[in-house]
Amino acid sequence: MLRFLFFLAVGVVLGGVLMMIIGHPGAAAWAFPTGMTVASLSGVLVLVARASSGLARADPAATRAAVEAGRLGLARIDALRQTGTRINDQPVCELELTVQPQDGPAFRAALRQIVPLTEIPAFQPGTVRAVAILVPGRPDVALVDEPATSAEAFRVVDAVPSASAAGPLRRSDPGGLRADGSRRSPLVGTGRRGRPLRMLGYALVLAVGVGIVLAPYRVAVAQTLAAIPEGRLHADLRSPEDLEAAVSALGHEIGHGNLVDVVVTDAYVIVDAPLSPGAIETDTWMYRGGLVEHRGAATIQPETELEQFDARDVDWAALWPAVEATAAEAGVTALDEVTLTLGRGTDSDIESETFGRSVGPVEVGFSFSDDYHSVSYRMDARGEAVEELG
């Protein structure tokens, strides 16, 4: 389960990285630090578990049951090797044993367990120890503190034979041994046979981790998938379909369609809108990465309700095609930095009570520039009547 937790955390990290690339600033900010923390902790535990794999993990009740049933024997230690792993500063050692049960033929068994430094002399090769046969017919044994000074102690008929006469070295199956002789097997096999299923399980869990992070930002993900064939990592919000979707999402969050100012770039759309239709108090909202962010009070507050306009009065789908057509006529090819600004024009009627205020018809402004020149344009809310301003 620790490995599944590790891959789940890795998926969360990957999801966080993806959102840093395709989402708005701060999107899924929790994912990367949380995923890294969990992945690091679970990874360390996996390494510890791997290093301690094969340790004698028999249930003490299983050992008592074997002793009470008389399944005892003598084991000669043929080899003692330190694995390089230490637990609580004590070495994990692998023992090679030749076991002579009280009844039945001798066999060889490998046993991995912690051997305290002070007890290593008692585990030197050639030493005979008492063992309990945990599972008849299997190489599952446990060293026990029974007298092993003579074969008569366990009524063993023959002395422990040589290792070569006891057959090949056998190892216990993975999993802890219960008192009834059954094993606590892992959900997914740890051997070669279980490897394809493990790999599939890890991939699925990793995908779940990514999905947990991306699910709240599925609109941004869908936009990115659609933009990748165009060589982009996010939608161009100036394009007709994406701009209409952005304005619709903004209107839904704001609660109405009255706007004061709009700025449209390829990556985000920012609008200033009144708190309610007819109100003067105005807040700023931003659409980016498929989400709308309420950014608080607008920097510049309007002076009159007449500065507002209805989003439905703008043909959003016609704006960018009009810009592209103007660029083509002007011989401009670099449009990545072009920004659209929308708002009411200034009242130029000197006799009007609103002279000098932004209460005129809705205007859309944009410009083309390079290192040497800059040309500005203005058109109406329908994407028509394009006028060069110089």
Automatic annotation (TrEMBL):
UniProt entry tagged with the keyword Transmembrane helix: yes
Regions crossing the membrane: 29-49, 199-217
Region (Disordered): 165-191
UniProt keyword terms in alphabetical order: Membrane, Transmembrane, Transmembrane helix
Domain of life: Bacteria
Listed name of the protein: Uncharacterized protein
Lineage, broadest ranks: Bacteria, Bacillati, Actinomycetota, Actinomycetes, Micrococcales
